[in-house]
Amino acid sequence: MPFLGQDWRSPGQSWVKTEDGWKKTTKDDNETNNNVLERKSYCKEELDKENLILSINYDVAAKKRKKDLLNNNTKIPYFHKDKWIYVHKGSTKERHGYCTLGEAFNRLDFCSAIKDTRRFNYVVRLLELIAKSQLPSLSGVAQKNYMNILERVVQKVLDDQQNVRPIKELLQTLYASLCSLVQDMGKSVLVGNINIWVHRMENILQWQQQLDNIQINRPKNTGMTLLELPVSLQLNIMQRLSDGRDLVSLGQVCPDLSVLTEDRLLWKKLCQYHFTDRQIRKRLMVSDKGQLEWKKMYFKLCRCYPHKEQYSDTLQFCTHCHILFWKDTDHPCTANNPESCCKAVSPQGFINLFKF
Questions:
Q1: Could you give the CA distance from residue 298 to residue 96 in angstroms, rounded to a whole number?
Q2: pLDDT at 76
Q3: β-strands 315-318, 323-326 pairing
Q4: How far is residue 302 from each of residues 131, 143, 192, 247, measured CA to CA in Å?
Q5: Each residue's pLDDT tens digit, 110-122
Q6: Integer CA distances (angstroms), 306 to 17, 225, 266, in order
């Protein structure tokens, strides 16, 4: 298509439509041909105007079709399923730009990860950390992908009736963050129309209500129950719980379990598992009888220090080839000993990996 507009970068040439087709003319030629152009018929001028109007209408229609196609595609969530990605921290001749947190969150396969019980807690913790401080740093597509993944997480909890409390805390954290971020809409905080985010906040409230109304079905009694086991085995099972709130909930089932959950050794092991000796010494609490109050110390330590995080499966990062991948997925490593180059990446480490 010939150039029709005025451009200061042009060498003074322009395209003129004649009976024989489009011809390139200079400024001097235009002055000599002015008389010829003035003798063009009225029909010719009208034809040129009509062609110009049709061209403009075509551009407007093309943009509208593109916008409608984009709107239709946004209704259908699309998820990437990359098992590994290359984390590049600088521009090269082959690739420009940096790998951002939003790009990594978009491309890695988190939808399949939430279906895996080993990775579920890892993804939930990552969503919680992003909700606290990193949501504005995500791109518009990544923010939308975040909400789509969160919707799948909530649906999984409603179907399985498991991990209800962590999802409640995640939704509460996200809603509190959005309440402050929505007030700064238009300041490069959140991408999109404010009405979209208000609708998403309404969905969060609806999810919270659904989780509050969930009723856990009592399993059918097909064998020996927990209360029928010996006391030593019951305590052994309780020692496998890594959250003190689970012990408190278990003690509310019946008086017998309530007595067992008050065992000082259980709470001592919880404190020693999550916190260091130095942290414990700073928060010592002694009863009137001269005994350490391990249960009270545990909840006091929880308010002062973060829990020790442990996951069945985590993301791995290869320091040799700078590839981020899931543990059970092979990546194209060129090192002689790939295992020595790989290290586990915690949810907080995942975020820190993209802080350049």
A1: 49
A2: 45
A3: antiparallel
A4: 21, 31, 37, 15
A5: 888 888 888 899 9
A6: 75, 34, 19
How many whole angstroms separate alpha carbon 293 and alpha carbon 310? 25
Tokens representing 296 are: 């009270």
Residue 348, token pair as written in the block: 């907080």
As a residue count, the chain comes to: 356
Which pTM was predicted? 0.69
Which residues in the chain come in under a pLDDT of 70? 1-15, 25-80, 89-98, 184-188, 219, 221-222, 356
**Cβ–Cβ under 8 Å, residues 342 and 87:** no
Q: Write the pLDDT tens digit of every residue in 171-208.
A: 999 999 998 888 766 565 788 788 888 899 999 999 99
CA distances from 328 to 84, 208, 240, 331 (A): 11, 33, 25, 10
Please list the alpha-helical segments (H only) found in the chain: 27-32, 34-38, 42-74, 101-107, 117-129, 140-160, 164-182, 194-212, 231-238, 244-251, 255-260, 264-274, 277-282, 294-304, 338-341, 347-352
Nearest CA to 135 among 73, 78, 201? 201
Task: Tell me phi and psi for residue 20, to 5 degrees.
Answer: -90, 0
**Can you say how many angstroms the Cα of residue 137 is from the centroid of all Cα atoms in its chain?**
11
Under 8 Å CB-to-CB from 214, ≥6 apart: which residues? Answer: 158, 161, 164
- H/E stretch holding 86 reads strand 84-86
Q: How far apart are CA 332 and CA 48, in angstroms?
A: 59
Q: Which residues pair with 250 in a beta bridge?
A: none
CA–CA gap between residue 186 and residue 168 (Å, rounded)? 29
C-alpha closest to that of 210 among 156, 130, 131, 147: 156
Amino acid, single-letter form, for residue 302:
C
Task: Supply 78's token pair.
Answer: 């699309």
Q: Name the token pair of 298.
A: 């545990």
Residues with Cβ within 8 Å of residue 334, at least 6 apart in sequence: 320, 321
